[in-house]
Design brief:
The complex is a heterodimer of chains A (308) and B (77).
Chain A lengths: L13 H6 L3 H16 L7 H25 L1 H6 L15 H22 L2 H22 L6 H10 L1 H10 L4 H24 L3 H4 L5 H5 L1 H23 L6 H23 L2 H6 L3 H25 L9
Helix pairs in contact in A: 2-3, 2-8, 2-15, 3-5, 3-6, 3-8, 5-6, 6-7, 6-8, 7-9, 8-9, 9-12, 9-15, 12-13, 13-15
Chain B lengths: L2 H37 L12 H8 L1 H15 L2
The chains are: A mainly alpha (308), B mainly alpha (77).
Chain lengths: 308, 77
Amino acid sequence: MTDFSAAGEHEAGFGDYFALLKPRVMSLVVFTALVGLLVAPVHVHPVVAFTAVLCIAIGAGAAGALNMWYDADIDAVMKRTRSRPVPSGRIHAEEALALGLALSGFAVTMLALATNFLAAGLLAFTIFFYAVVYTIWLKRRTPQNIVIGGLSGALPPMVGWAAATGDISWAGAMMVALIFMWTPPHFWALDLFVKGDYAKAGVPMLTAVRGPRATRNHILAYTLLLVPVALGLGLTQVGGPVYMAAAAVLNAAFVARALRLWRRDEAAAAADNMKAEKKFFMLSLWYLFLHFGALLLQALPQVPGWSL
Amino acid sequence: MPLTELHELHSRRWSRNLGLGVVLGGAVVLIFALTLVKVTLEGADRPPAALPEAVAPAVQPAPGAAPAAPALQEDTP
């Protein structure tokens, strides 16, 4: 750290190391894992619950750091990611690797000690899937990269559930399925409005490989497939009339906007600077947040369940 | 090296050291709290090992249960 070769560069502050963990992704993981833990029908001591969610978040952050290590080359090329700590020269790629590996080990071990081996195993699998299966293997090889890789982002509620109950369940699996089916429309909308940023870096995203019309078709298809999954979650033990009502409204809105995206052509999209695509992306964030919020609401004892 | 450059370096190192100090301190507090919870069985995943007193009462009610059962049967019409 005291080598004078770094004297001319911006030496990294604490915030830069934190940025390696992809904080915005971490916040989604924290929320979905917390919901997965809270809606489980087992009481968990607050300190144990806090530790579990923290470990899951750190695990996700570690996976993010590993991704930033491996993708340093393409992050440097893409406009969206150019200012990240590694491509901007603030942190060396090897430091990201070291931090990712160390935090992964710490998070998985602490989760095993705080809860159980199933949750820790699932967290380890999540990190492995994101870092190795998605980042190293699939991302640069197939336009289905984010579909399959999306499993990593989908697993946290199941990890939270396992941390609480020591078991897996249909409810947990359906929460995973919800995020899994949601991920493609979410990322392909982004793909549409970043306008070839991925193509420049040689990443075979759907728009680069098959063109925007194919991407619009795929977004609509996955949005329609998402509807039975979202409603199916409502029929599990964590579902109920309140959740169903929220899901019905949110899915109707999501499908309506996906249809709008599907009917547009590139000329119309360019004319308003991808406004509908950006709005669809924003809606996708609300969609996920409100579905999990509805599950939390449904889990309150005062809220009526299916046994009416 | 000019004094101004040195000062910038110090502030970045200070932020790193402070951040790491807070993280480590937080980890110590958290692990201590977790230990307390686990040791006092508030957050236990499995019940404590059976003590001798717990085993004995299970044997006693059995002879007492037999005379109680026919008494109940006589009550029902």
